[in-house]
Write a structure and sequence with these properties.
Number of strands: 12
CATH topology of the largest domain: Rossmann fold
Largest sheet: 5 strands, parallel
CATH class of the largest domain: Alpha Beta
CATH superfamily of the largest domain: P-loop containing nucleotide triphosphate hydrolases
Order of helices and strands: EHEHEHEHEHHEHEHEHEHHEHEHHEHHHH
Strand order of the largest sheet: 2-1-3-4-5
Low-confidence stretches: 347-351, 410-415
Distance between the termini: 60 Å
Helix content: 40-55%
Length: about 425
């Protein structure tokens, strides 16, 4: 039969409901508060949830919103309350609850609500990535979420000032309404047209790094910017460059002025290192629920290993690592040994792998090759940013890469 999670802070209610539903043949899970409910929902993924509204730590409506925002409301939820109002019931239904039971709950009403809920087709998750709503224990991420909500309430355009370890995509996903479309403009190389904007109506347009857009993609960005209101779109762009630097690279100053009008500097992964285990766990949960990876969980030691890595590539690098670990690990639990075995070594955090038992010239050349390979990868082949990072003039940089047998990233600078 079905796995049903009962969430209520009153032990008498939990025991009564569990006894009734066990007699009906169901497997019952119990949670006394929202914290326990989150853990049970993530670990067991119940077929249905009976959720009390008034609880001491987090109320049921807030928990329901959290699940909806994170794409985790893919099971039927029936709300319960002894002090509810019509407005509360309407709000719960709007968020995604399928029914509302008033305490004391009549036996027939309970059984009828459970039957209706279990007969409903399973709803898919609404998002394939976490949002800031998932990180309710992190002070910096909660503060970021409040700032973000305040900004997007009055502006359709947001520029994120980021650096290494960027959380730009996590921020942008938090702007995306539930079940709304998402379009990464950096992935659109052909001219953008009205049909694409119509298909994304009500959703989010995203650019992970402005400096990587070609001249044609900059025109796409300007085209979309003029039509945000018409198609109810929000635009979130990120960059580690100043307005002046982008103008120097050939960007239209008027376009940049519009993009830089409202900006926010979110924390980097390094700034929220203590929250990284929770971030990795949420990523894994969403990948599992989206069917992209088999059922996996991280051991505490594995999460500690992930927390101690630098993640200069930020959110995309961490997500790729989590997916690789989930697909490459044979056991259900991902251990610290799997992290060491499956993830590439960090070239910037320890031994660089250059043999010291060779002449200085050869050792220096080996180090330089490793150094430039590392920064080419971090900068996505962007030569302007690579020149700034390494402190070399561009002509000298091209010559050095040629000497080392490395290919320059010209494809990222096409106009």
């Amino acid at each position: 039969m079905a796995k049903i999670l009962i969430v209520d802070d009153e032990i008498g209610i939990r025991e009564l409901l569990s006894e009734i539903l066990r007699d009906e043949g169901h497997d019952i899970l119990l949670a006394e508060n929202a914290t326990a409910a989150r853990a049970a929902r993530n670990a067991v993924r119940p077929d249905m949830v009976l959720l009390d509204i008034w609880m001491p730590d987090t109320d049921g409506i807030t928990l329901l919103k959290e699940w909806a925002a994170n794409g985790q409301l893919n099971m039927p939820v029936v709300m319960m309350s002894g002090h509810g109002t019509i407005d509360t019931a309407v709000e719960a239904t709007r968020i995604g609850a399928i029914d509302y039971l008033e305490k004391p709950i009549a036996l027939q009403k309970l059984l009828a609500a459970v039957k209706r809920g279990l007969q409903r087709p399973q709803a898919p998750g609404v998002q394939s990535a976490p949002t800031l709503a998932a990180f309710h224990r992190s002070v910096p991420l909660r503060e970021l979420r409040r700032r973000l909500e305040q900004i997007v309430g009055s502006s359709r355009v947001l520029l994120l000032r980021v650096g290494a370890g960027s959380l730009a995509e996590l921020v942008a996903r938090s702007v995306q309404p539930a079940n709304a479309p998402w379009l990464d403009l950096a992935a659109v190389t052909a001219p953008l047209d009205i049909n694409q904007l119509q298909a994304t109506q009500g959703g989010v347009l995203f650019v992970g790094e402005l400096a990587r857009l070609s001249r044609a993609q900059q025109k796409n960005l300007a085209f979309a910017l003029d039509r945000l209101e018409r198609y109810d779109l929000r635009l979130v762009v990120a960059t580690d460059r100043s307005l002046e630097a982008l103008v120097g690279e050939g960007w239209e100053e008027g376009l940049l002025a519009r993009l830089f009008e409202v900006s926010l500097a979110p924390p980097s992964i390094a700034d929220v290192r203590e929250d990284l285990p929770e971030l990795a766990s949420q990523m894994l949960l969403h990948l599992v629920e989206a069917g992209e990876v088999p059922l996996r969980r991280f051991s505490t030691a594995a999460l500690n290993q992930l927390r101690n890595l630098p993640w200069p590539g930020g959110y995309p690098e961490l997500r790729a690592a989590v997916k690789s670990l989930a697909l490459g690990t044979l056991e259900e639990e991902i251990g610290a040994g799997e992290v060491r075995r499956l993830l590439p070594p960090d070239l910037g955090a320890g031994a660089c792998g250059v043999s010291l038992d060779q002449p200085l010239r050869e050792a220096r050349e080996a180090f330089e090759r490793m150094y430039f390979e590392h920064h080419l990868r971090l900068e996505g082949g962007n030569m302007t940013r690579l020149a700034e990072k390494t402190g070399l003039e561009r002509t000298h940089l091209y010559r050095k890469l040629k000497q080392l047998g490395l290919q320059a990233g010209r494809r990222h600078e096409e106009f």
